[in-house]
Structures are given as C-alpha cells and as structure tokens.
Amino acid sequence: MSMEWFDVVNERDEVVGRAPRAEVHARGLRHRAVHVLVFNGRGQLFLQKRSRWKDREPGLWDSSASGHVDAGEAYDAAAVRELREELGVELAAPPQRWFKLEACPETDQEFVWVYRLEHGGPFQWSSEEIEDGAWFDPGVISRWVRTEPAMFARSFRYLWAEVERRGGRAEP
Fold it and tell me: Is the peptide bond before 105 cis (omega within 30 degrees of 0)?
C-alpha cells in the first residue's frame, strides 16, 4: 500500500504544508475530511459499520461514507471518491454540501464538509472498509447514540449532534 499524504491546514482551513497520514495523526495536525450522509426516499439514513481491520475506530457505526481528503484534492472530489470506494456509488457531480465542521478534538483535528445525498441503493461495499451497513430512521439513530455512544465513531457522534441541532431533518 502506498503512503497517504494529506494537506496540513491552519485554523482557517488554508493549506500550509503536506505530511504523511501517520505523522498528521501522531502530531494532531489539522487536516481535511468528508462525510456523506445517504438518505433513501423514506428519510432513512444508511450507516456503515466500519471494518474491524480499520486502523482508526474499527467496528464502530459511522456515516454512510467518509474519509480523508488527499493532498491536493478538493473536498467535492473526495466526497465523490469516497462514495465510489466505500459504497460503489458512481456520481457525475458531487453530492449536495450540507454543513461544515471546524477542526477540533471531536473530529480528530479534521475540517469536515458534510454532504447529503438521496440514493436508495443497492450498495456494493468493500469488506476492507465496511463490515456491515443498514438503513435507520433518524429518531432511532438519535436514541441509539444517546444510549450507546460507544457503538459510534467519535466524529459521527459529533456530526450527528449538529444534525439534531438542525432539527434532525434529512433536508438541508
């Protein structure tokens, strides 16, 4: 596997350098990521259970698709790539941007653009990336996050709190 490189950014999300993935995480440097929330026509959200082989937060429930923005890559391009790599969804254009999270400990020092997409599946996920996946009503997710937070990736819990602040709606 080739070494992944990320853009290192300042507090305004401006690129100030580049570093390998391991160094970015070890030093807690600010960098970029995307999360895509995929809703079906009934308003249910598809969540993925991260593969137990993942180096960070294995086996936890997370956004429909998510990942780092590679060095030199734009947020929108990363969202399209992650949907293809993780769920087998091919898009001609990026999904709709919904909101942006600031880099903080809860996001692992990642600036995160959160996207929303309506897509009913089916999905073809990579077992290297995803162990399982299922559709859930937003209210079920909210209760589950409150009662069993350890079942979810830290950044998803933080992201989901923002979705709830927005009224828990699937609409932007």
Answer: no
5-165 CATH: 3.90.79.10
Write down the domain spans for the chain.
5-165
Residues 6+ apart with CB under 8 A from 32: 6, 7, 9, 13, 68, 69, 75, 78, 110, 111, 112, 113
Structure tokens at 114: 């959160």
Residue located via tokens 């690129």: 15
pLDDT tens for each residue of 101-113: 999 999 999 999 9
Res 92: pLDDT: 93
Which residues on neighbouring strands pair with residue 10, listed in sequence order?
none
Asked if 169 contacts 137 with a C-beta cutoff of 8 angstroms, the reply is no
